[in-house]
Write a structure and sequence with these properties.
This protein starts with 5 loop residues before the first helix and ends with a helix. Helix 10 packs antiparallel against helix 12, helix 11 packs parallel to helix 12 and helix 16 runs parallel beside helix 25. It has 725 residues and is α/β, with parallel strands linked by helices. The protein contains 27 helices and 21 strands. Helix 20 links the parallel strand 20 and strand 21. It has a 7-stranded parallel beta sheet with strand order 11-12-10-13-14-9-15, with helices on both faces. Strands 16-21-20-17-19-18 form a 6-stranded parallel beta sheet, with helices on both faces. Strands 2-3-4-6-5 form a 5-stranded mixed beta barrel.
Length: 725
């Protein structure tokens, strides 16, 4: 499988495969699977072809015509081909090519490849590459070897390039299959037998040259299994290794800070919060580091669950750190925890509770004196709870006894962070990762498979419903006018509102876009331009603030404090408000250019309203036309507040390869067939087998071929991507 392709298919073809498709060895080519399979006599729906698309179609010659060219000497051959859908396509060949007319006889089937163009309302391919199928005459016998791979009923169509059409790839694959020994099957025979999987050699042959639909299904199932099994083995082995690390147990202590906190909580915990709290408390009491993911809908009460875990660690003599993605959110957590803890956070002050600690905020924007004081509190252990951004891990912050790290949103805990943390603590601390983005079950198994997962699905009592509507600004401008009128009504009723834009904008903005993009669309709306237009126009007279990531940290905090304190009516912001911002009096959000945001982002943004007793309203403003995929996506977001349904939709609309790290790592991936949506059962079964195998052979030392196969499918870059999530 490591044989260079130039030794098998010739230097010229090998060079084309390498430069256009990044295929260098026999193994690279064998794992370059067909994109689809055409069947002779089965239409390929020519009517669905888009102008500008590079296509390969299976079609039948219907008629040919030769006519002189107008602008220059010579003739033009025009061939009309069609399929069973009733669609037709014109093929044009310039110059005197009488031999083509003889070859392209009506009734002949062929594969035709080229770029779709349009001329006088008809779609056509100019000078396409083609290969004819079957019915060779004696004069065509020399071509039989080239097209033998298309002799079967199922014709493989490969991801190709203009310089390397699909039939060239098929011919090269046939050479490799006929001359290179199949790889050793790395899958243990017991797994193959129990899961009824075909052998690897047979699967690779059948996926390229299927003898029937049934055999093709069996081949694809085996190769999908290999992909799922490789990822699951990687994750399960990491989880197994982490469980072997020592950690200091942090058991609950009766009569301590946690009990005092529970007693002063102004509301009752939900059943879900209690159950998840019990799971986390048990993890913290063990001698191995907790690695748990806490997922829950926006507003499901994750922060209180995390705070209770932090208090348990403080009760056990340790410290807890909460890492937030932005300084705005870190500062908000700080204010929120001080309010919840009250005298329990005032150790060393008058009026402090008997069992009290200190809560410190450490951010880059602290003044020198305040920073020195905060770092001294952290280093001495006086500050039991420390809040900040990921800078906490690096910038000279020393803990007396770091026992728990809570990572809030956006950041999965990766290699560098774990290394930095180990340097902060004598032993690895316990880790709790929180996310408000609901994660489909198969993504959780595939990307977060080395973490235990807890889910909060129950909203606390008193949370208000959120109504969402799409505002089609281009089709119905009056609807946008009504939206601003509705916002004024909310403010008149004593409430507040957000207006969210996709871009910051402003003079000298680094990301300043051109007037129109490649598709002819205007640039996304920007906070810097929208805020003054609203202040002078539909929101004239209201108190408007601006918040975005380019503001200095102290200014961001001041704006957020003003909004939270009711000194502003409207906050015009970027997605800096997406995560964790909690202003119960904010009841309305208008998202401008909503089609420029992802499904999960919109769901997160919407969660900023309806956090108090009054109902929430979210208006998704868009110029996307009815029936477009962007509009359908917005309609779906407006139709449900079920984050798990939206997460499935989000996954359907994204390239799944991104989830598995192919795009981010910059390398061609062998993870090609597995669908996180369609193959949920297979992924679950692969995880069960991976757990059983790792328990029996943690290092895969008794399965060297399998270890090598896993390393090939999930290389070091991709394994690290999975670790960082």
């Amino acid at each position: 499988m490591d044989t260079p392709l130039k030794k098998l298919v010739g230097e010229k073809t090998a060079k084309a495969l390498a430069s256009h498709l990044d295929l260098h060895t026999a193994g690279d080519l064998i794992y370059h699977f067909p994109r689809r399979y055409d069947e002779r006599g089965e239409h390929t729906d020519i009517r669905a072809l888009d102008v500008g698309e590079q296509v390969t179609v299976l079609a039948q010659v219907q008629r040919t015509a030769v006519r002189p060219m107008r602008q220059r000497r010579g003739n033009l051959l025009e061939v009309t081909v069609g399929d069973d859908s009733g669609g037709t396509l014109s093929l044009t060949f310039f110059g005197n090519q009488a031999w083509r007319e003889r070859e392209l006889r009506p009734g002949r089937w062929g594969l035709f490849a080229g770029k779709v163009t349009e001329f006088r309302g008809r779609r056509q391919l100019n000078g396409p590459e083609y290969v004819l199928l079957g019915d060779q005459t004696d004069t065509e016998a020399a071509a039989s070897e080239q097209i033998e791979e298309f002799a079967g009923a199922l014709i493989p169509v490969y991801p190709a390039a203009a310089a390397v059409p699909t039939w060239v790839i098929a011919r090269c694959v046939r050479v490799v299959l006929d001359t290179v020994a199949p790889p050793e099957d790395p899958l243990p025979a017991t797994v193959r037998a129990s899961r009824k999987l075909v052998g690897l050699g047979g699967a690779l042959r059948e996926i390229h040259r299927p003898s029937s639909r049934e055999e093709l299904y069996r081949a694809r199932r085996r190769l999908k299994w290999d992909e799922a099994f490789a990822v699951q083995l990687t994750l399960v082995r990491r989880k197994h290794q982490a469980a072997a690390w020592p950690a200091r147990p942090r058991p609950p202590r009766a009569g301590g800070l946690l009990d005092a906190f529970d007693a002063r909580l102004p509301y009752e915990l939900t059943g879900g919060q209690r159950d998840v709290g019990t799971e986390i408390a048990a993890d913290l009491a063990t001698g191995h580091p907790m690695h748990r993911l806490l997922q829950g809908e926006v507003g499901s009460g994750k922060t209180v669950v995390a705070l209770r875990a932090m208090l348990q660690v403080v009760d056990a003599g340790g410290q807890a750190a909460l890492l937030a993605p932005t300084e705005v959110l870190a500062a908000q957590h700080h204010r929120g925890m001080l309010d919840l803890l009250g005298p329990l956070a005032q150790a060393g002050e008058l009026g402090a509770a008997e069992h009290a600690t200190r809560v410190e905020l450490v951010t880059g924007s602290l003044g020198a004196a305040a920073r020195r004081r905060a770092l001294a509190e952290v280093a001495s252990g006086a500050a039991g709870i420390v809040l900040g951004t990921h800078a906490l891990l690096y910038e000279g912050v020393d803990f007396a006894d770091l026992g728990l790290v809570v990572v809030d949103e956006q950041h999965r805990f990766g290699v560098e962070q774990r290394d930095a943390l180990r340097a902060k603590a004598d032993q690895p601390p316990h880790v709790l990762v929180m996310t408000a983005t609901p994660i489909p079950r198969t993504v959780a198994m595939t990307v977060y498979g080395d973490l235990e997962i807890s889910t909060l699905s129950q909203l606390p009592r008193g949370r208000s419903p959120i109504a969402s509507h799409v505002v089609p600004a281009a089709e119905k401008p009056a609807f946008l006018d009504r939206a601003w009128g509705r916002l004024r009504e909310e403010v008149a009723a004593g409430h507040q509102a957000y207006v969210v834009c996709p871009r910051i904008g402003g003079v000298g903005a680094e990301e300043e876009p051109p007037a129109v993009d490649d598709t002819g669309r205007r640039p996304p709306l920007a906070v810097a331009e929208v805020a003054p237009l609203l202040a002078e126009g539909p929101l004239h007279g209201l108190r408007i603030g601006v918040l975005h990531g380019r503001l200095p940290a102290d200014e961001k905090d001041a704006v957020m404090r003003s909004f939270a304190g009711g000194e502003l009516d409207v906050l015009v912001a970027t997605t800096v408000v997406e995560v964790g911002v909690d202003v119960p009096n904010a009841t309305m959000m208008v998202v401008l250019d909503a089609d420029r945001f992802g499904v999960s982002q919109l769901h997160q943004l919407r969660g900023r309203v309806g956090r108090g007793s009054a109902a929430g309203l979210c208006l998704l403003v868009t110029e996307a036309t009815e029936g477009s995929s962007a509009r359908e996506r917005l309609d779906a977001v407006a139709s449900t507040t079920d984050g798990f349904k939206l997460a499935e939709l989000d996954l359907e609309q994204r390239r799944e390869g991104d989830v598995l790290g192919a795009a981010q790592s910059g390398h061609r991936s062998h993870l090609r067939l597995l669908s996180l949506l369609r193959d949920a059962d297979l992924i679950r079964d692969a995880r069960a087998e991976a757990i059983a195998l790792v328990e029996e052979d943690p290092d895969l030392s008794r399965h060297p071929a399998l270890a090598a196969s896993v390393a090939a499918l999930v290389d070091a870059d991709r394994a690290e991507y999975l670790e960082k999530g």
